[in-house]
Design goal:
By secondary structure, the protein is an all-alpha fold. Helix content is 82%, strand content 0%. The termini are far apart.
Length: 77
Amino acid sequence: MRPDLLRPLLGTLGLLIGFTLYALAGKLSQPWQSLAIGGMFAALGLSAWVYARGERWIQVLGLLLIIYGLLRATVLR
């Protein structure tokens, strides 16, 4: 497939996987629930940072997701 046609399919698949993982992590007991959800946000931020390749607003969004993920895993309950 051409990359232009594959991108929406991969985006939809990624959303389905993300929502499924988030729902499964929500069933865990504390503190594992906060650690798992925080880790997912931090991983999403890290992947956004790597994907950005010089686009500053995506890097800022990635950094905010990393910070929120770390706070969610450690402080926010």
